[in-house]
Write a structure and sequence with these properties.
Layout lengths: L1 E5 L7 E2 L2 E2 L1 H17 L4 E5 L10 H17 L3 E4 L6 H4 L3 H5 L3 E4 L9 E5 L2 E8 L4 H4 L10 H17 L6 E7 L1 E2 L18 E2 L9 E5 L5 E4 L2 E3 L16 E7 L5 E7 L6 E6 L1 H6 L10 E6 L8 H8 L3 E6 L12 H5 L4 H13 L5 H23 L2
Parallel strand pairs: 1-4, 4-5, 5-6, 8-9, 9-12, 10-11, 12-14, 17-18, 18-19
Antiparallel strand pairs: 1-15, 2-3, 7-8, 13-14, 15-16
Helix pairs in contact: 1-2, 10-11
């Protein structure tokens, strides 16, 4: 059976101030053309269909067009909700839409109820694990700790229990939206950390033939049978070197896996440039970036006048401008943003404690801080879910 694995469409998202709906429409055109050209048997969409819980109307129209075109192909599509989606909104009408071959899996309690698609070698069971927010599904899965690993582990236990009752030789595919250990993140994924631990081990998906993952925006292979398709478009400059693709997966009669990457259309290349303004404006090596979306970091010791306007004269698609002025060796002055780079909210709070009293928090105090941040985040999740 031939599968096309994609995820993280983020319909409605902009790239800095650039509207990406035309690029997202072009991706849908490419997706449909690939399904037809490659004789795909099933399409897998592993979450984050939309960029936010209440998407703009134009994004909904793109999604509606995609559903109609996939249904017209007569190729089954299995789709789950991600952490950016509203599971309830995305799942509206799932029963009716399923009759057209578009199978929306957004209910955590139904994760063990597969879409079964037969081929010449027997059945393939597709299990959809929508994004499982621990604070919301802890009781459903009867786990003591509201964290990602126990919740996803419990969901997979249900999947394996259902699979064990099916005819021998039934192959299996799981769609999941999660941060799996070993995956490489970028700047454009929304943090899903709970208790300081957001990742789950790849071994949690043991027992299935293929795990089609979503959430991380770079296409990557965590294990032979555990893969991220990545997002079809770049959504941050940290994705400058990403090759945006979908996975074309051939699932053999005994569960063998053969994988090929299918490139996605690139609306405009990305470039990160850094240096003094006058150097950036004159350097002939940068000519290749004049038609790119540009993020520029200026290193001038003194901030120059009208830097964005001057950059745009040479690089008309400059979207982001940052300043990192040169400092003499040994200069203790470091920008606040630089000090915070790579640190999460809990680490920043611990640094603040150390700053005001001279010593950092002990183990008990770190636990209090962690629980406080988890409580705040859980309250935000509950509020978002109620919208």
């Amino acid at each position: 059976m031939r599968l096309l694995h994609t995820s993280d469409w983020h319909l409605g998202r902009a790239f800095h101030r650039v509207n990406l709906l035309d690029a997202q429409r072009a991706f849908i055109d490419h997706l449909v053309a690939t399904v037809r050209a490659e004789s795909v048997d099933a399409v897998l969409v592993s979450g984050d269909v939309y960029d936010r819980a209440v998407p703009p109307l134009a994004a909904v129209e793109v999604f509606d067009d995609a559903l109609h075109r996939l249904a017209e192909l007569g190729v089954p599509t299995v789709m789950i909700s991600g952490n950016h989606d509203s599971a309830r909104r995305l799942g509206v009408g799932a029963g009716l839409i399923g009759r057209a071959g578009i199978h929306l899996r957004t209910a955590p309690a139904a994760c063990h109820e597969p879409v079964v698609i037969p081929d010449a070698h027997g059945d393939v069971a597709f299990y959809g694990l929508p994004y499982l927010e621990p604070a919301l599904v802890k009781d459903e899965f009867k786990v003591q700790k509201a964290a990602h690993e126990p919740v996803i582990g419990a969901a997979m236990d249900r999947v394996r229990a259902d699979l064990a009752q099916r005819p021998p030789g039934t192959r299996s595919v799981v769609l999941a939206h999660a941060f799996v250990t070993g995956g490489e993140p970028s700047d454009s994924e929304r943090d899903i950390a709970v208790g300081g631990v957001e990742s789950v081990p790849a071994a949690v998906f043991a027992g299935v033939d293929y795990a089609a993952l979503g959430h991380l925006h770079g296409c990557q292979t965590v294990a032979e049978r555990v893969r991220y398709s990545g997002s079809p478009l770049a959504y941050s400059f940290s994705e400058q070197h990403h090759r945006k693709t979908m996975w074309l997966i051939d699932l053999g009669p005994a569960g063998e896996i053969a994988a090929e990457r299918i490139d996605c259309p690139v609306p405009r290349r990305l470039a990160r440039i850094e240096g003094d303004l006058e150097v950036l404006l004159a350097d002939p090596e940068l000519e290749r970036y004049e038609d790119a979306w540009v993020e520029a970091t200026l290193t001038d010791a003194v901030r120059p006048a009208d830097p964005m306007a001057r950059l745009c004269e040479r690089f008309p698609h400059t979207l982001s401008l940052a300043f990192a002025p040169r400092r003499p060796d040994g200069d203790p002055v470091v920008s606040y943003a630089e000090r915070l780079k790579g640190r999460d909210d809990r680490e920043i709070a611990e640094d603040f404690v150390a700053h005001v009293r001279g010593t950092g928090p002990d183990a008990a105090e770190r636990l209090v801080l962690r629980d406080a941040f988890d409580d705040v985040r859980a309250a935000d999740v509950l509020k978002e879910a109620a919208r």
